[in-house]
Amino acid sequence: MRMAREFFGNINKNKVMLFMVLPGTLWFLFFSYLPMLGTVIAFKEYRFSRDGFWASIVNSKWVGLDNFKFLFTTNDAYIITRNTLLYNAAFIIVGLVLSVLMAVVLSEIVNKKLAKFYQTGMFLPYFLSWVVVGYFAFSFLSSERGMLNQIMGFFGAESVQWYSEKKYWPLILILVYLWKAVGYNSVVYLAAIMGIDKSLYEAAMIDGASKLQQIRSITLPLLRPILTIMTLLAVGKIFYADFGLFYQVPRNSGTLYSVTNVIDTYVYQGLKSTGEIGMSTAAGLYQSLVGFTLVMFSNYIVRKYDKDSALF
Amino acid sequence: MSSITRKERDFHQLSKPLNVLFNLIAGIFAFLCVFPFLFVVIISFTDEGALARDGYRLFPSKWSLGAYRYVFESGDMLLRSYGVTILVTVLGTIVSLLFMSFYAYAISRKSFRYRNFFSFLAFFTMLFNGGLVPTYIVVTQLLHLKDTIWALVLPLAVNAFYIMILRTFYTTSVPDAIIESGKIDGAGEFRIFLTLVLPLSLPGLATIALFSTLGYWNDWFNALLYIDDPNLVPLQSMLMRIETSMQFLLQNSQNSSLSIEALRSMPQDTSRMAMVVLATGPIIFAYPFFQRYFIQGLTVGAVKE
């Protein structure tokens, strides 16, 4: 009785704050926590019921781990896992090198107005949707009209059916990713470089260090903490692919699937085209579980390395 | 004074050749980032006949305004999609700012007894999620949002990461003393939030609002999942739909009696590129002015409590 009164007293005391978190809480409930409960469909044979959401879930038959078994006996699970991991690994490594390079270059350019101008140019792709980027890619890769085939024709080379030749796509996707992400990622590193104490460079100058030596022994070592942290955080997300990149840029070309299909596009196809609800939920849950493990793991390492930069 | 600063600058200056090299690296990459957009603009101003003959050219043999004339004459589809996108963007930004600024403020207040619980509630969604399929089922079968404007607004309304950024913003830019003084003056929690806290945290709110606006303007994923009604198709999604066929445009133009011959003579490729230009135009013109807010958001982003 006293506890109840205390509880309601607390509610009353915090009622304005509780009211403020109410809309967000409802959102998290419907868009995050109910879907988490909804992952039980991964263990069911999903049957849509006219009686609505709960009926659909409750009335579907339990099938244990069948969806997972089915997923992992096909070659698909291997392909989508491989593609997701390898592409993301390439994005992390090459993206890091180029972003840092751009940040260093921008920070050193003598004319600051010009540097700002370049940065504005590099930032543009960040503001464009993947649909638009898909169109851009098409203007280069279209087999009849694209610029690439025209250039190749000019040099007397055979034109290429870009949207059905698998071997070029790992390179194309990596280039498109870099094009969109490097300018945006370099912003973080540029801010870090700007925060470096200027007197370090002055001391190095007095000791006769050249600019390149300064970059190598002052800028890069001092960037290392933030580089490590950004990389570890990216590793934590390595199981999640950018759906837009892999869906819009290859124009959903079926012949390319073995090199363009990632977990996210696979789940989408299961939901919208093949209708294998149970199995694609299973693939999604597989992604979430491994992804969760990886975030926890990388955060654990970040924490050991630098407590302040950890996610939690 | 000015001579001293000049000297100081000399300390950091690159040698001439290195400066030229660095300018080249940055300049070329910046140009490559902008180039595809320029190319698409050029294609959109190319004569359809010249395009069919030569392909996409940087210097077309014949220029034309035909694509734009066609887009503006071919019914109200583009206008309607613009309308949907603007409505969704405005509504969405307001809703998300309202939801997130309230939530973040409450969990930033030390006097809020349940702040840890609600912080965790938001934070956990950054670590784990149910995935696409269960979310889709909740939105379509429980909330029944399919083919409504809310299917484009609500899924993007709240983002735990933005809530964390906002919370950081409140704790760093609104001193406790100000809130206390408000309390002493007898203002209620709401009054304090509206009259004391909001004005101080406007820069942070503006940053988040811009991220939201960009997210809504560029969203096509939710339309792909939830929208079949041609009246509710936002810009980005319309670009996707016309990409596969001009049929969509035909069905939705007022001149639905166009014959096959007319369809064949349509400036297909150029007008699609013209739509890409018209859909991205506002962003291209606006982003240089708002760039610094995005930079601020990106660099403040990683800071936590």
UniProtKB/TrEMBL annotation, chain B:
InterPro entries for this protein: MetI-like, MetI-like_sf
Swiss-Prot/TrEMBL keywords: Cell membrane, Membrane, Transmembrane, Transmembrane helix, Transport
Which region is the signal sequence? none
Q: Which Pfam families match?
A: BPD_transp_1
- State the superkingdom: Bacteria
State which residue ranges cross the membrane: 20-45, 82-105, 117-137, 149-170, 190-217, 273-290
Q: Can you say what this protein is called?
A: Carbohydrate ABC transporter permease
- Source organism of this protein record: Paenibacillus agri
